[in-house]
User: Which sequence fits this backbone?
């Protein structure tokens, strides 16, 4: 269809006519280039292939990858909120058990995803399911506190509209995997041990470097110390402003009054005006 339309547009124009498009390699690439969100997702898929070949240590009973089994919702999020380059990119650590594990969306508390983002989609199941860590998708009734805190603060600062927030901001997770031990306890990437911890970090950082080159943020906000330390190794982050925002998880030490402290941090660094799309 596109080729036929191009033929119709160029019909009747001579070779020397300045209005006639020159169909060189660059023009053809531009016409058939994938949308930004699809390029971003392709990198995630390649990362998933790398991570799937890593042998997990005996202390890890199960790993969940919601980018794979919740790809419908995950891609709906990317299509909606990653339609162009962004000024600010917030980067969290990895999926939370009642957040992204259920929805495929970073900090994706179910109510936030279904009501505030107005997204829907099918959610499958990980290949190996821990009996204490069920995946029920948008039917999950337990709140992801980190997601509630983060997204509701962003929504409020953006004047109640996530479409305004997403004009210049995007939220992503450094690692797509959730880790559970034999008892079903959530193991964060910072709690991994030995060579496996380094392998996960290096693979995720390699993928993120490619994603940053696509999104082109001028400010990268690491949500939590684990991501901040990992991004110190990023070549891209050495060329832009990199900040560390305290993680909203209630598991974090000295994390009372997170919304108030986080708002103060965002105001202090002049980020709220971008979240409101006022610049």
Assistant:
């Amino acid at each position: 269809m596109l080729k036929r339309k191009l033929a119709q547009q160029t019909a009747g124009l001579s070779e020397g006519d300045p209005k006639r498009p020159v169909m060189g390699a660059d023009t053809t690439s531009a016409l058939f280039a994938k949308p930004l969100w699809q390029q971003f997702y392709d990198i995630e898929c390649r990362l998933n292939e790398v991570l799937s070949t890593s042998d997990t240590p005996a202390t890890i009973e199960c790993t969940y990858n919601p980018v794979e089994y919740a790809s419908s919702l995950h891609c709906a999020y990317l299509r909606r909120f990653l339609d162009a380059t962004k000024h600010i990119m917030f980067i969290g650590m990895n999926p939370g058990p009642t957040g992204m594990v259920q929805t495929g969306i970073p900090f994706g508390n179910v109510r936030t995803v279904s009501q505030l983002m107005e997204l829907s989609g099918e959610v499958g199941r990980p290949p190996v399911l821990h009996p204490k860590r069920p995946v029920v998708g948008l039917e999950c009734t337990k709140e992801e506190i980190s997601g509630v805190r983060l997204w509701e603060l962003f929504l409020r600062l953006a004047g109640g509209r996530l479409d305004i927030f997403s004009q210049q901001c995007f939220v992503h997770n450094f690692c797509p995997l959730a880790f559970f031990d034999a008892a079903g306890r959530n193991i964060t990437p910072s709690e991994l041990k030995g060579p496996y911890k380094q392998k996960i970090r290096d693979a995720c950082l390699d993928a993120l470097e490619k994603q940053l080159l696509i999104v082109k943020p001028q400010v990268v906000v690491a949500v939590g110390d684990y991501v901040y330390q990992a991004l110190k190794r990023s070549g891209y982050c050495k060329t832009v402003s990199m900040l560390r925002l305290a993680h909203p998880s209630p598991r974090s030490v000295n994390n009372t009054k997170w919304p108030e402290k986080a708002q103060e941090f965002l105001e202090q660094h002049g980020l709220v005006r971008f979240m409101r799309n006022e610049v």
User: Anything to note?
Assistant: The chain is about 45% helix and 10% strand. Residues 23 and 29 are 10 Å apart (CA to CA).
